[in-house]
Write a structure and sequence with these properties.
It is built from 13 helices and 2 strands; from the N terminus they run βαααααααααααβαα. By secondary structure, the protein is mainly alpha-helical. Strands 1-2 form a two-stranded antiparallel sheet. It starts with a strand and ends in a 12-residue tail after the last helix.
Length: 384
């Protein structure tokens, strides 16, 4: 028998995770079409929120299934990463390339933009391959079935038990400590790797706050906004660091391309002014973003923001109200429950395989009738 956990905790997790699975499903078609960069952005965020929830509620799911599901979601996040980073670079450079830009700089900007768009087209191929594989393997469907089984017929279960508050405290406090351990490095702008690590830790803290925000009512909303601002500032610093590091290498690669094509490096001279100006522009941007981050951080320190956050998650809960519902509390054994899930999944797969086998029509007329049966429907036949 597996290790038991309060069912109310798992129901809370399942409801949140079900919402993230739905968000992922809703963005797939847009991410495949790639007409709007926000589809991939929203899909990537939803995948990270889902992974974060798995981290905090591991004991609500069978170990083997949980590992498989987390690997599937991790692959989605990874496949979208390169495409999203390139989208950000292309968008930023397109914003910088305007009428006020010195004409002497435009050829360099145009060449960088061309190469970024070429790389983005290749990244889209990987996105499509990954998402289609996910659809073929029905990864999201299996996760959906797993979390739906937990949240089904649970309207009478009281969620906000002392155990849930304890779990929220542990999750947020641990994420906060991981985030604050990078504070000692922020006073030096040269600490590129540490600032980037702080950005990642801040992102996990924000997702943990968002996950448990409902149990604190309005108290967490300011901290969600705070973490968004910090995340944006550290993200802009990181993006500028990437530009500053990558552009000199870009010049070297472009020099080789030009020399191989023309037999000399003469045409490179037309590109250098713009690329070199772009490097300086990103350095100036990095300095400004870093100073803005330090100002924000000092303001938060003056307001004792982090100590206040700890007070919020440490605050006593309405024990009396919670205890009234504990008599209805149920234990939940994920390892036992998965037997029913697997049986249902197997039945669905058998139904799908059976539906995929087309019967041989008894006559040409019957075949025509079968084909025409769908002509006047707005949607294709339902998938089992």
């Amino acid at each position: 028998m597996g290790k038991k956990v309060q069912k109310s905790i798992c129901v809370f997790a399942a409801k949140f995770m079900l919402d993230q699975v739905t968000r992922l499903e809703n963005e797939i078609s847009g991410a495949l079409e790639a007409d709007d960069i926000e589809y991939i952005h929203r899909m990537r965020v939803a995948s990270r929120r889902l992974r974060n929830a798995f981290d905090h509620f591991k004991d609500c799911f069978p170990k083997k299934k949980s590992v498989t599901w987390q690997d599937d979601i991790r692959q989605i996040t990874k496949s979208l990463g390169s495409a999203r980073d390139l989208d950000i670079q292309i968008e930023r450079l397109s914003q910088l390339y305007d009428e006020s830009l010195d004409p002497a700089f435009k050829p360099g900007y145009q060449r960088v933009l061309l190469r970024l768009k070429q790389r983005r087209a290749k990244a889209q191929i990987k996105v499509e391959k990954s998402l289609k594989k996910m659809q073929e393997e029905r990864s999201l469907e299996k996760i959906r079935l797993g979390v739906e089984r937990i949240s089904m017929n649970t309207e009478d279960i009281y969620l906000y038990t002392p155990s849930l508050y304890q779990r929220a405290f542990t999750a947020i406090n641990t994420s906060l400590e991981d985030f604050l351990c990078h504070e000692e490095y922020i006073t030096s702008p040269e600490n590129i790797e540490e600032l980037h690590a702080m950005r990642i830790a801040g992102k996990k803290l924000r997702y943990s706050i968002e996950l448990f925000a409902p149990i604190y009512k309005q108290a967490m909303f300011p901290y969600i906004q705070i973490m968004k601002e910090i995340q944006n500032q550290l993200g802009n610093i990181h993006d500028d660091d990437i530009w500053i590091s990558w552009l000199p290498k870009f010049i070297d690669k472009e020099k080789v391309r030009i020399e191989n094509y023309f037999g000399n490096t003469g045409p490179l001279e037309k590109l250098l002014p713009g690329i070199e100006f772009l490097i300086e522009d990103r350095k100036n941007s990095r300095t400004a973003e870093y100073q803005a981050f330090l100002t924000t951080w000092q303001t938060l320190q003056d307001e004792n923001a982090w100590a206040t956050l700890k007070e919020i998650i440490n605050a006593p809960i309405n024990i009396e109200a919670a205890l009234q519902h504990l008599t209805k509390e149920e234990d939940f054994d994920p390892e036992m429950d998965i037997v029913e899930v697997e049986e249902e999944q197997q039945k669905e797969e058998e139904d799908t395989a059976e539906a995929a086998v087309e019967p041989i029509p008894e006559s040409v007329e019957e075949a025509a009738d079968d084909q025409n049966a769908w002509i006047h429907l707005d949607e294709p036949p339902p998938t089992p």
